[in-house]
Amino acid sequence: MLHNSSAPRVVRFIPYARHAFAALSVAALLSACAMPKHTDAAAPAPDPFNPAATQLLDDTSWVLSSWKQADGTVRPIPSIPAAGSGTPITLTLSTEKGQRHASGFSGCNRYMGSYALKDGKLSFGTLGGTRMACATPGGQIESAYLQALTHIERTGVQMRAPQQMQLVLDNGDTLTYERNAQ
Asked: 87 burial class (0-12, 13-18, 19+ CB within 10 angstroms)?
């Protein structure tokens, strides 16, 4: 009978091959499950004019922080909270009673009405309000502010710090709001 001397070597190799194959399989599975790591701070900021971002506006409150006119000049905003005096111009968007309700302070009076979020744009229905007369800087900007809310062309929302909302008007003006923590 012929004796094949290579047969016993193959038999001895098979257990080692199984262990090596199992180890390689485990390593491949672990590396496939590893998630790439990056912090939110390193990620690029999302596009604030993404239409889906406006859906984040429900149940938020905002303070008008700047009004940049189309020609690049900045319109003075009375009672900016950082100045520490007076009441700031505000906008609150609520769904508390099952309907979208807007309210706020417009410089002299309180205002309220309905709002809609459609195709990435914030828009307002008829806004009503109190009717006090004010000879203050707030009273001087109030009419223009309320008129601006009826001429929104684009809405931008940034919910990463600093949280801001931008309303770009059809005349090119941009109203920028800071998120109110209330």
From this structure: middle
Instruction: Tally Cβ neighbours within 10 Å of residue 155.
Output: 21
Top CATH class of 51-179 equals mainly beta
- Are 107 and 145 a contacting pair, CB within 8 Å? yes
User: Rounded to whole angstroms, how far apart are CA atoms 77 and 79?
Assistant: 7
Name residues whose C-beta falls within 8 Å of residue 152's C-beta, 6 or more positions apart in sequence.
121, 122, 123, 124, 167, 168, 169, 170
φ, ψ for residue 29 (rounded to 5)?
Answer: -65, -40
Dump pLDDT digits (tens) for 77-113.
986 544 445 789 999 999 998 999 999 999 999 999 9
**Which pLDDT tens digit goes with each residue over 33-68?**
555 555 555 666 667 888 888 889 999 999 999 999
C-alpha gyration radius of the chain: 30
8-state DSSP, 51 = G
The CA distance from 70 to 171, in Å, is: 7
Of 158, 177, 143, 124, the closest CA to residue 54 belongs to 158
Using DSSP, state whether 87 is helix, strand or coil.
coil
d(CA 122, CA 110): 19
Domain borders along the chain are 51-179
